[in-house]
Amino acid sequence: MKTRGFFKKAFYLYYDGFRQMTLGRTLWLIILIKLFVIFAVLKLFFFPDFIGTRAKVGGEADFVNSQLEQRMP
């Protein structure tokens, strides 16, 4: 029962803090936009699905294993 009270107090601490923010909301919006750009846009254009295009369906693990064996000295 004590942990339930702890989580409730922690929730209301953050809830009240975020509710009273003015400048912080703008900063959080900027952070979320930057995270979207990093994870969505950059992955889409700069990190293609290398394994999916070169390995057979269901044989991804074998493809990775063969690539690791070739690169290990």
UniProtKB/TrEMBL annotation:
Highest taxon above the source species: Bacteria
Annotated InterPro entries: DUF4492 (IPR027853)
Transmembrane regions listed in the UniProt entry: 27-46
Keyword terms of this UniProt record: Membrane, Transmembrane, Transmembrane helix
Entry annotated with the keyword Transmembrane helix: yes
Organism name: Segatella maculosa OT 289
Protein known as: DUF4492 domain-containing protein
Pfam families in the cross-refs: DUF4492
